[in-house]
Amino acid sequence: MEGDSVRILLVEDEEALRVAVADSLRDEGYRVLTAAEGDTGLQLALEEKPDIVVLDVMLPKRDGYSICQELRRLNLSVPVLMLTARGLVDDRVRGLDAGADDYMVKPFSLAELHARLRAIARRLQSAANKPERIAFGDGVQVEFAQRICSRNGAHVDLTAKEFGVLELLVSRAGEPVSRDEFLDVVWGYTAFPTTRTVDNHIARLRQKLERDPAGPEHIVTVPKAGYRFVIEE
Fold first, then answer.
1. Which of 12, 58, 80, 201 sits CB 3.0–4.6 Å from 18 for a disulfide?
2. How far is 97 from 20, CA to CA, in rounded Å?
3. Could you tell me the CATH number of the domain that includes residue 31?
């Protein structure tokens, strides 16, 4: 999902901040809608169906918690990134409990905001391309929705993260997937794993699924780029 195809709704009552953030997002190639108070923000979210909502907590007419709760009550899964000057743990928990996907405390850097939004966009792209199943190699069969994996008819026990890593690789078959992309999509941008975590999961997948884990045919390393899933001819 490229930046110029992502629509962001920014709901922020501080005019100077709203204009600065909106301009910076447009410079990054996003299409941006804005609202200065909660009722208008909720209306735009429902009518315009943006890809991502960037939502201030303290707003006139309707606060950010209420907006997020209403979106989730209506079963709208649009990712919500909350902005607030309140950095207490209880406030963050309240935001996440309301259905927010991420949380940033003011003041924040535009560079960090852009990084968070890129991570969300990658997660959206991954969700849109999720594979249903795949068969490859030494009798390996994987049903992603059911989280079932077998090899030559025998059950293979994969962890949730191993399924996530494999699912991302298969969804991007033939293309290199960077370690940072694995961390964003599989672990989530609010977690704090390291790139070594990705390498360890790749090693375990190779042990479980490759004929020769030391010379993998399908889950291959791309030097300086990450890993790639190779489809058999």
1. 12
2. 29
3. 3.40.50.2300
Answer yes or no: do 137 and 78 share one domain: no
CB atoms within 10 A of CB 184: 22
Tens-place pLDDT, residues 184-206: 888 875 556 677 889 999 999 99
Closest CA relative to residue 113, chosen from 198, 17, 34: 17
Identify whether residues 139 and 65 lie together within a single domain. Answer: no
Whether residue 86 is found in the same domain as residue 122 = yes
pTM of the entire predicted model:
0.64
Q: How far is CA 12 from the centre of its chain?
A: 23
Contact 164, 186 (CB under 8 A): yes
Binning pLDDT at 50, 70 and 90, where does residue 85 land?
Answer: confident
Tokens representing 124? 């959206």
Say how far apart CA 74 and CA 2 lie, in whole Å. 27
Question: Are 141 and 197 found together in one domain?
Answer: yes
Identify whether the C-beta of residue 138 lies closer than 8 Å to the C-beta of residue 151.
Answer: yes
DSSP code for 229: E
Which residue, 103, 49, 97, 102, is CA-closest to 76?
49
